[in-house]
């Protein structure tokens, strides 16, 4: 039986409904209503069994001025799509721990055999061949995939004039030596480009790229991040299908943002680029559902809609509530405030667990985050990422000044 978009949406929505009230938007009594985006990752086994293994809610990110204070503890970006992907990476490591400790067999991952492990494909684990990965988002991803929706919501949909030359500073944009990254809604007549968050013009500037940009990149690097790429071969870690509510789906926009004939045209021949084993350009299928998230901004019933400042994190092994990119009730300066999905949280789990240390590449243990990102162990993941930035997602400027830290 084919898996339907409604079934994927229901799997994520029912998982969110099962979370405690502290993870959800709060009821208000001032003719206002909180709303939040929701995203989830669903694994399908043998084309039948659906399991939501990761979800996230939220729509905020860390201002550029606070990046140097993050020290791996504060999330740079906690938009729902980004949190869902970070939660999925956490789930993979947690699944490894349970498998290595003999606590349970896994329906989703396996140990690779000695004959499968090579110098260029050294990772000890892989997602099973009979698993497909689906993603549900309650809102169109911010950035290029939602620009038509943004235009349609304007009182005056006349495109704004784009300043020339493009490399000079513009209102609502951040300039670099080579490019300008536009804010989420700045100059919405410009499409097919990399945009930064947030969309509100009065918010502090950031260098966090839009969710459209990050999802486009994941079509090439897989869902694995720098840390989990030490453990998992990327071959089966790609999104197979992305599901959006029909009210949030604009084919022209998603084709442009994600499709092989849109802005990703420059990298649709992965073999020509010479990417390493397991990496390729895999555009996900786009499908729609009539299901709507109860806490979406379209369910306000005429009330004032206020973004919720809480973010939920879920895997089958844990759940968290975040505020300001850290655990609710903790100060951002406290290392104990780190979410399990943060850089520090993921690296702690990877390097501090005895069973995982035994299967990691020996030279990777104890490295600072900077050294890890620059190491030969992730050079293949980094090569793919750099290729995509150069050939398709031009103008991508990395968030920096939060890498020179270690667990010590």
TrEMBL record:
<dbReference type="GO" id="GO:0043829">
    <property type="term" value="F:tRNA-specific adenosine-37 deaminase activity"/>
</dbReference>
<protein>
    <recommendedName>
        <fullName>A to I editase domain-containing protein</fullName>
    </recommendedName>
</protein>
<dbReference type="InterPro" id="IPR042935">
    <property type="entry name" value="Tad1"/>
</dbReference>
<feature type="domain" description="A to I editase">
    <location>
        <begin position="54"/>
        <end position="234"/>
    </location>
</feature>
<dbReference type="InterPro" id="IPR002466">
    <property type="entry name" value="A_deamin"/>
</dbReference>
<dbReference type="GO" id="GO:0002100">
    <property type="term" value="P:tRNA wobble adenosine to inosine editing"/>
</dbReference>
<dbReference type="GO" id="GO:0003723">
    <property type="term" value="F:RNA binding"/>
</dbReference>
<dbReference type="Pfam" id="PF02137">
    <property type="entry name" value="A_deamin"/>
</dbReference>
